[in-house]
Amino acid sequence: MQLRTALAVILGCMLLVLSACGGANGNNAGKAAGGNSGGEQAEATAPNPASDEEQRNVKVVLDWSPNTNHTGLYVAKDQGYFAEEGLNVEILLPGSGGAEAMIASGEVPFGVSVQENVTQSRLQGVPLVSIAAIIQHNTSGFAAPVTKNIKSPKDFEGKAYGGWGSPVEEAIIKSIMDLQGADVGKVKFLNIGDADYFTAVKRDIDFAWIFYAWTGIEAELRGEPLDMLYVKDYSEQLDYYTPVLVTNEKTIMDDPELVKAFMRAVSKGYNYAMDHPDESAQILLKAVPDLDKDLVVASQTWLSPKYKDDAPRWGEQKREVWQNYSDWMHERGLLEKPLDVDAAFTNEFLPSE
């Protein structure tokens, strides 16, 4: 997937979100296959051991179109883990305002975002809280066809970068170029919006920011090898959580048992996806049959071990990861003030293993 974050959307819609939150008692590499939006359903069929009267209807919104970042949600639905918790979960695609706006306003209690969006949102007074890291380490980076001969950030000089116009993009590129004494002023920045990565690098640009688990794997399947520069390899501060599961402060305060039940089921879903990548890929394909089968299977194989990686359990978040990235953003003028890190995330609702 080309790395898509919802930063621009968040900043553009922040006043609307804050207004919605007040009226209710008050996502890169965001990030995925395709570009569907509009709050549509994107569901899997699941066993339902409880009657409709016993089940509680709950919605969760994705950050982008369904992909292997989301597999654990579809597994939890398909395998009946949500139903076991008394939940009838509806998986939605984001509306035009983005997933964060839907979650913060209380339109839906849960959703998928990324650490940079939660950080930006909280500094704008938007009450999002991260409740799990879907992937432990940042799998995004700058990718270029090997024919472009981009082997290090120094090689960005004289090249064209294609992105979506977020200040974070140039800040990260400058940060890793500075480490090599390179000049970011020699990079041509182009806003390519939703343009297909493979088309853009043949026509308009030399490199872009992607998630390897999707676009990188697709490049392998196409026989179009990439040079991949993972941002985490250049700075510990850039090894942030992307994506994350989020809720809002009101849901945590008013209905903590719902959050616990939801997270018990989701944790089972991602643990299943870690242990059974082939079966999990088929579950995702069953729920979203328009996805490319070969890409889903290969992506799931690559990504499944990375959900938990070196963490003691799936979903675990470290305070220093949140502190490091927010410090990096503040140092570069992307945040007006430091983040209250302890309010931005919690491990409280993760089941013990």
UniProtKB/TrEMBL annotation:
Domain SsuA/THI5-like: 67-279
Region of interest: Disordered: 31-55
UniProt entry keywords in alphabetical sequence: Signal
SUPFAM superfamilies xrefs: Periplasmic binding protein-like II
Keyword Manganese: no
Signal sequence region: 1-22
Domain of life, source organism: Bacteria
GO biological process assignments: thiamine biosynthetic process
Listed name of the protein: ABC transporter substrate-binding protein
Higher taxonomy: Bacteria, Bacillati, Bacillota, Bacilli, Bacillales
